[in-house]
Amino acid sequence: MSHSPVHRAGDAPVKVELKAGxxxxxxxxxxxxxxxFCDGSHQGTGLDPIVFEAEENxxxxxxxxxxxxxxxxCDGSHKNCAESK
Length: 85
Hints:
Layout: E1 14-18, E2 23-26, E3 50-53, E4 58-62, H1 78-81
Antiparallel strand pairs: 1-4, 2-3
């Protein structure tokens, strides 16, 4: 299945405070104006957000380059793709 290209939303991860039991939708397409979260801009792209529930109150680093191998968390992929922006 093909989809529209993924857009880079940033060159570094963003620190986010998650609340236990709350559901979040991480933008996987890079088009959302509400980064790093989904605002519905993916409609028609063939890409869907990653929906997850926080298991505990915590601070996490969410990926903004959209190349992580561990979505929605940053895995350092931005270090390898920053120069190809």
